[in-house]
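Thread: Newbie trying to understand structure tokens

Hi all, I'm a second-year student working on a class project, and my supervisor (Dr. K.) asked me to get a predicted structure for one chain before our next meeting. I've only ever worked with sequences, so writing a 3D structure as a token string is new to me. If someone could post the tokens and maybe explain what I'm looking at, I'd be very grateful. Here's the chain:
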Amino acid sequence: MKKILVTGNGFDIEHKLPTKYSDFISILNIIENMSDFTFEDLYSNIFPKDFDSIKSFDLDLERIKKISLILINNVWYNHFKKVNESLTWIDFENEIESVLSIIYSFIEMFYNDLCPNGYFVDLYTTSDNLGRLLEDKLIDRIVLINFNIYKGQKESGGNSYKFSLNTDFLDNNINPFYYTLNKDKISKYLLKELNQFRFIFNEYFECFVVPFYNTQNFKINNDIKRSIDCHYTFNYTPTFQNLYKKDITSYVHGNIGDQFNFVLGINEVPNSINYKKSFIPFTKLFQKLNFSTDYKFLETDLKLGKLDNDFYVFIWGHSLDSSDSEYIIEIFKLLEKEKNERFNRKIIIIVHDMNSKGKLLINLIEIIGAEKINNLMKNEILDFVLNESNELVQYLNKKGNNNSVLDVGVY
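---
Reply by user tm_fold:
Sure, no problem. This is what the structure looks like when written as tokens:
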């Protein structure tokens, strides 16, 4: 029987790595605002109870300096650092989607309400009308300001500001007196900045997380190390590979490295958007295909014969949020009654404490449905276990039939 491990960021956090969203923002804020800092400055707030047990390492100051210079002008980073530090990476992805949604609304409003002909003559009159429309339509102008689409210029002789469209996103190549908003310029600018932010993100992990693998004493689960045959991770980090010394990891969303070709985007662009093509590069699907990330998952590997028909899936540290619903649905489809009657399959969700069980259940009920989750738990096909428990050990050491070979045509 195959034992399959699926991990999210909670797996890294459980191994005391600084991979929370709040860790990321905290450390980058320090290197942005302090010209001289120490290891303690960076990590003492992240590990307030355990800092004395953290072994220091030499910081790559030259590389860190380059990161700090890029931070200054990157619009995505400067927006994110203004958002509550208590956010998670799921909230972070949702914030990308929220920003793009506001910009979609702004462009739609421009063409539908402000300039139905697609062009205007007087920039300042148009900007005044735009300000009133933003207020009427409840479109967050702060986001437009943060991303340089809507700019403020201080008026002479006072402290008030005159706001207008950023002329970098306007065209007047048809007629020198007529202006139009260039939506492609906006999307390309936002994508360029997001790709730069991807570089910042990659450098954070390379400089502030990866050195931990070689310097700290980690507590690992030897039953996991011995029993797991296949590992899928939604993280970008090689934590399992480095700590458990098994080269069996598939990176669903890509991984950190020199090319930083990992997925960092939104699920989809709404079909209602008339200019959907301009924003497709922000979607996870496009990025997976474009970056050729290791996006194969359970059902694909079953069809290819890489997995036995009998298996247990252990999920550790994944939020089971709707942002990864396509993968969660894929896992649970493999437990459908007619398949599970022929094969021995279970899902075991590993939790740090039972308080987190409720949050995960809510997410599963939303994605899979209450009736299905109820039936799976009642029939002991879905179970929640603590990460340090006899129940987990028993599941990991469960023996099964390894002789069943998948007929590719079945699925």
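A couple of things are worth pointing out once you decode it. The two ends are 19 Å apart (CA to CA). Confidence is low (pLDDT under 50) at residues 402-411. Feel free to ask follow-ups in this thread.
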